[in-house]
Write a structure and sequence with these properties.
By secondary structure, the chain is mainly α. The chain has four helices and no strands. The longest helix is centred in the first third of the chain and has 30 residues.
Amino acid sequence: MIRQETAWVLFVAGLIFIASLVLGVWKWQQSMASPDGTAHRYVNVAHNAGLLYSFATSAVVAPLVQFSGWPTAVNVTAAAAIVGMFTVTISNYVRLGIQARTDNQMRDLRPSLRGVREALVICEIGGTAVLLTGFASAQL
């Protein structure tokens, strides 16, 4: 039987995957309507990132949670930080695709987003490091 926190991580991975499939429909619709047969850059990026993040969540984060030696609260906090930032990133790409004002968010970067970028780095790398050390302590 899998741990409760692992089940939640897998459930969220499934939600991200379904959302990515819906983003794929949006991408397809834009491609069909476009004279050059392509969707807006960030519609494409949102779709691809969603698919990749859903697989990272199910193939990496969930097993690390399942086999971690840390208490449930530590696993949930680390996994929520990682998956939360995945969701923030995908949502930002969707926003950029809806607005269709830029094809390069770094070129048109708002200074107010520095804190968001720093949070992404800390949560994704830090959360993964926490889960990886929990896995290593219990399994190696």
